Amino acid sequence: MIGDGMGVSQVYAGMTANKGSLYLEKSQFVGLSKTYSADRYITDSAAGGTAIATGTKTNNGAIGVDPDGNPVKSILEYAAENGLSTGVVASCAITHATPASFVAHQPKRGMQEEIAVDFLNSDITLFIGGGKRYFNDRSDSVDLLPKLAEKGFQLAFTMDEVKELTEGRLAALVADEHQASYPERGEFLPESVMAAINLLKGNEKGFFLMVEGSQIDWAGHANDTEATVNEMLDFDRAIKVAFDYADQDPNTLVVITADHETGGMALTGGDLSTGEVEGTFATTGHSSVMVPVFAYGAGSEAFAGIYENTDILAKLLSLYGF
Ligand SMILES: [Zn+2]
């Protein structure tokens, strides 16, 4: 689970607004990840997502390729190859940098139409997010929606349609571009995590699911403390859904981290009894600081310590036994 732009200040802003605690505190082990990219001291979400997904530091803007442009295999692809079910869920366009890093291989994050084709041609079991226009309103006039159906994906365009499904492949595109911010988009994220787990858990070999709380980052870019808190608490409710499943199936590991911090956020005031929190920001861009890694469940001890963002892949591969 990736909170885009979620540094320790964003976590503690949510914790303060929630009067002192978050569901994610149930994590048994905590580490710190170094996020710099192959070509920049400060990463973007493409290089950050690619590092987490593939274990490869790449240049900012690159999706699932190394600095020379060669495709590198993601944890989702390893899982699919080994017969596991796989999925991605994001509270933004599914073709956006973070979810794309787990599925696509393109030199530039802006190539969202090409990234949509990579989703079509992938072995992924399900995806739930926005970005419908990159599938059906494309510059090449090709409609990828019937092609998705031909590949066995059930199509859904609303959360009600998503919730009706109990098995099979799923392509859920609930917004033309991005979903609204929280609270306008409602319980999209926790509900999508629940729906995704229900669809994926039937595979006896197991599953891999990437969930992005996408808009924590946008709140940081906007230097907006209230939006940061709203998105952080929404992400935390999605975390609770994953933890609840891990409690039912003790072979489950939940890892929660970020691709980078956004905004250079600092908390300069607050009140744990009222939930009031005062944030200030050092930049409207990303910052370079290490980000937290929280781990819960089977194998969680592997995530204690200080390490490169690229080490997360090796830890996951070894725990899965691939
Ligand atoms: Zn950003």
* Termini separation: 20 Å
Shape designation: globular
CATH classification class: Alpha Beta
Q: Treating each run of at least 4 consecutive H or I residues as one helix, how many helices?
A: 12
- Any idea what the radius of gyration is? 18 Å
The CATH homologous superfamily name equals Alkaline Phosphatase, subunit A
Helix content, binned percent: 25-40%
Number of domains: 1
The largest beta-sheet arranges its strands as: 1-7-3-4-6-5
Number of strands: 14
Overall structural class, as computed from helix and strand content, comes to alpha/beta
What does this structure look like?
Helix 8 links the parallel strand 5 (153-156) and strand 6. The protein contains 12 helices and 14 strands. It is α/β, with parallel strands linked by helices and 322 residues long. Helix 1 crosses helix 11 (225-248), helix 2 packs parallel to helix 4 (97-103) and helix 9 (188-200) packs parallel to helix 11 (225-248). The chain has a single domain, classed as Alkaline Phosphatase, subunit A (3-Layer(aba) Sandwich). The longest helix has 24 residues, at 225-248. The radius of gyration is 18 Å and the shape is globular. Bound molecules: zinc ion (ZN). Zinc ion (ZN) binds next to helix 10. Zinc ion binds at residues 5, 45, 217, 221, 262, 286.
